[in-house]
Amino acid sequence: MVEYVIVGDEKGLVIPDLSDYPLGKRPLRGLRLVHTHLKNESITEDDITDLSLLRLDLLATLLFVPGKQQIYAQLAWLSGSQSGSPATTEPVSPLERIDLDCVHFIPELEADLERVTRSSSRSADALERAILISVTTGGTRQDAEDSMAELRELARTSRVEALDEFIQRPHSLNPRYVMGEGKMRDVVIRALQRGATMLIFDQELTPAQIRSISALTELKVIDRSQLILDIFARRAKSLDGKVQVELAQLKYLLPRLTGRGVQMSRLMGGIGGRGPGETKLETDRRRIRDRIASLERVLEDLSRGRSQRRQQRIKAGVPIISIVGYTNAGKSTLLNALTKSDVFTEDLLFATLDTSTRRLRFPREREVIITDTVGFIRSLPKSLMGAFKATLEELQDANLLLHVVDTANPRFEDQIAQVRTILAELGLGDKDELLVFNKADLLKDMKRKDTVAFLRVRQSARTEGGIIVSARDRKSLAPLMEELQRRFWPDEHLDDDPSIQTAS
Ligand SMILES: Nc1nc2c(ncn2[C@@H]2O[C@H](COP(=O)(O)OP(=O)(O)OP(=O)(O)O)[C@@H](O)[C@H]2O)c(=O)[nH]1
Ligand SMILES: [Mg+2]
Asked: Which of 328, 358, 468 to mutate to test the pocket of ligand 1 (most atoms within 8 A of CB)?
């Protein structure tokens, strides 16, 4: 059945919006393209690019050879192989000699393509499959790899399977596609070959970049910030957390709304025209702005309640300790161990979004209030920083920040620096800080396997005046308790038996 008739000129033709034929579960689109080449030219690289980007079932080119009566034709289809050419191209032959039974051929081809994607995909519970992409101009290759490793963790937390990774370090960024256009096309084609459903960029994309990349492909295009927002949205439990995350999401979304779902373009670079959704887009924008305003009011009310509670606490004169640190460092585990409570912990990023407050009892009826906070991460989206300012307001009242460090992470020094940068941005740079080097139980193993890393931890703890603990082992917390006691009640001495007594 002929679905579209497209008339082009000698330069090329513009493929219409194909959203009636979305790429769904099947590896091909369900459309074949038959087109003419006026200049006696066999299938070109551009043709193959379109075949791959659009995931067409089949591409046929008709050629008119001058001086010959016959019409010639050439066929191409996507090949299943991951390496080598993305397509199989048949030799040019007279049209009447071409004999391909598409009814059988295309399902077989699809089965073939599916086999390839299935063999490269391991994780059954993944919701999406992604290609991770990092494009940076500054920093070293190691920096880019570290950041990529973290992006992988973020993806895992979001139940996205990372199929492949690309790191590019060009001299300058391409304003339209971040990387060069040709390179971007290659990455998209690779992603489609591997059965990816999305592209995740490690750097924040501008609204214009998201638009241009989305014009190349229907794959979802998101960046690190969006991934973090997604995790936060799924993790938020309290009203406060939910409101803050939704607010951050809407603020992020607003400049990035594009009216039409997908923009399909080109053969040879033509870009599809304006979508039908311009007025709808305006309504959407207005609706989002209204929602933002109403959420901000809710947040104000919540914040008033919070500040009353804070006032009471300050009036009570009980010292306040806030646990801060990089995500997954073990902050909640430490709070639990110190106060025998049962705050949620998990080996995924951003297990904690809402602050929890507990009492920590010392001998002789002494006590402090101790709060657990959301973990920090490098390049925390600005919209989220703003949103969590309210929650993090509590940090302003803290008499001491317990800065928990994951010593098992080879990038722990960098993480300390990142946390300090964020604290400074929050205006908390001058607060008293006590570094707690956590996961000491893993150090023994490290000492055997990676002596240098082990020595770095010890050296760092010594120069920073930090305390080494294992939040999983309550006995290891005694030196920390002594240090806290010494800081808050310097004139008194800890009882002989420094067992930790708690109540919440
Ligand atoms: N081996 C070991 N694992 C630990 C220790 N402390 C925490 N963990 C583990 O590290 C992971 C993260 O712990 P959490 O307490 O959730 O970390 P967090 O800093 O609160 O993380 P977010 O709330 O996600 O920012 C969990 O799997 C913990 O069991 C420790 O001393 N030793
Ligand atoms: Mg936590």
From this structure: 328
Q: How far is the CA of 331 from the centre of ligand 1 (A)?
A: 6
Q: State the average pLDDT for the chain.
A: 83
In 3D space, the residue among 486, 484, 479, 475 whose CA is nearest the CA of residue 398 turns out to be 484
Contact assessment for residue 446 and residue 453, using Cβ atoms and an 8 Å cutoff: yes
Q: Is the whole-model pTM more than 0.85?
A: no
C-alpha 151 to ligand 1 mean position (Å): 18
From the CA of 348, the nearest ligand is: 1
Atom of ligand 1 nearest to the CA of 372: 20
Question: 14-47: buried (b, 16+ CB within 10 Å) or exposed (e) per residue?
Answer: bbebbeebebeeebbbbbbbeeebeeeeebeeeb
Q: Whose CA is nearest to atom 2 of ligand 1?
A: 439
* CATH number for the segment(s) 318-502: 3.40.50.300
What are the boundaries of each domain within the chain?
Answer: 32-120, 128-235, 238-316, 318-502
Q: Whose CA is nearest to atom 27 of ligand 1?
A: 347
| The CATH classification of domain 128-235, taken from the options 3.40.50.11060, 3.65.10.10, 3.10.350.10, 3.30.310.50 | 3.40.50.11060
pLDDT in tens, 206-222: 888 988 898 888 888 89
**pLDDT one-digit tens code per residue, 373-430:** 888 888 777 767 766 676 677 888 899 999 999 999 988 999 999 999 989 988 899 9
